[in-house]
Design brief:
single chain, 87 residues, four-stranded mixed β-sheet
């Protein structure tokens, strides 16, 4: 079973683009929800994450956080293990 990676993002956010590039380079499929012009979706993201900035990323049921959090996981060597555990 493939892990689901959910990412709330914006088309104009450089951090979203960087996070998406990292996830794609790892071969991870992304379910991307664009919050641009969609206040209900942004509100949903804020309720789930407690944060108002994009991107907000979940690997399986684990809220990773934003772009910096995702890259920190990768630098720490924890990204692959999290993906495997979530799958």
């Amino acid at each position: 079973m493939a892990v689901e990676v959910l990412m709330y993002s914006s088309n104009y956010c450089p951090f979203c683009m960087r996070a998406k590039q990292l996830l794609q380079s790892k071969g991870v499929a992304i379910k991307e929800l664009i919050v641009d012009g969609n206040p209900e979706l942004r509100q949903e993201m804020m309720q789930k994450s407690g944060r108002h900035t994009v991107p907000q990323i979940w690997i399986g049921d684990t809220h990773v956080g934003g772009c910096d959090d995702l890259f920190a996981l990768e630098r720490a060597g924890e990204f692959d293990a999290l993906v495997q555990c979530a799958g």
